[in-house]
Amino acid sequence: MTEHEPTIFDQIIAGNIPCHRVYEDEHVFAFLDINPLSVGHVLVIPKERAAQLHLLSDDAAAALGRVLPRLCRAVLKTTGSEAYNVLQNNGADAHQAVFHVHFHIIPKLPKGPGLGLQWTTQELEGGEDLAAAITANIEES
Ligand code: AMP
């Protein structure tokens, strides 16, 4: 799978494959996940074809960032949920199945279904050097 190979999400944006659309603008498309983790599970995608988040243009990222909170508010209002996860997987090892950038909005009701998470932490070591290395690797926009 290359960075720019078309996926099923390109077909959905083009209207060649049906979906339950909830939002569309010039740069962004959002629709119901076909296998939801909970009622109201929405996928938010850029129209720009990029396999993973780090490959996305600044303009497409900005367009997504502008609308994501608004879509979260709509999902919360519709489902009555007050808690939710926004999940964004990159790479097969990180559970990415569709190689077109997408954000999951997954509502969580108390004791209801939603995203299950195993959060196994470790102690931070070498934080100063690590932070400096990451900072040094941030490209100019
Ligand atoms: P990920 O594992 O982050 O790549 O998630 C891909 C998501 O796309 C899954 O939650 C699928 O249920 C969802 N999905 C795949 N095909 C479709 C489709 N045709 N319509 C809606 N959602 C889809």
Integer count of domains = 1
Structural class: alpha+beta
Shape summary: globular
Task: Give the CATH superfamily.
Answer: HIT-like
- Under the CATH scheme, which architecture would be assigned? 2-Layer Sandwich
List SSEs in N-to-C order: HEEEHEEH
Distance between the termini: 26 Å
Number of strands: 5
Oligomeric grouping of the chains: single chain
Biggest β-sheet strands, sense, barrel: 5 strands, antiparallel
Bound molecules: adenosine monophosphate
Any idea of the CATH topology? Answer: HIT family, subunit A
Order of strands across the main sheet:
1-2-3-5-4
Q: What is the share of helical residues?
A: 25-40%
Q: How big is the Rg?
A: 17 Å
Write the layout of secondary structure elements.
Layout lengths: L7 H7 L6 E4 L3 E5 L9 E5 L11 H22 L3 E5 L15 E6 L18 H10 L5
Antiparallel strand pairs: 1-2, 2-3, 3-5, 4-5
The structure holds adenosine monophosphate.
Keywords:
single chain; 141 residues; alpha+beta; HIT family, subunit A; 5-stranded antiparallel sheet; globular; binds adenosine monophosphate
Give a verbal description of the structure.
- By secondary structure, this protein is α+β, with helices and mostly antiparallel strands.
- The chain has a single domain (8-116), classed as HIT family, subunit A.
- It is 28% helix and 18% strand.
- It contains three helices and five strands; from the N terminus they run αβββαββα.
- It has helices at residues 8-14, 58-79, 127-136, and strands at 21-24, 28-32, 42-46, 83-87, 103-108.
- The chain has a five-stranded antiparallel β-sheet with strand order 1-2-3-5-4, covered by helices on one side.
- A hairpin with a 3-residue loop joins β1 (21-24) and β2.
- The model has no long low-confidence stretch (mean pLDDT 95).
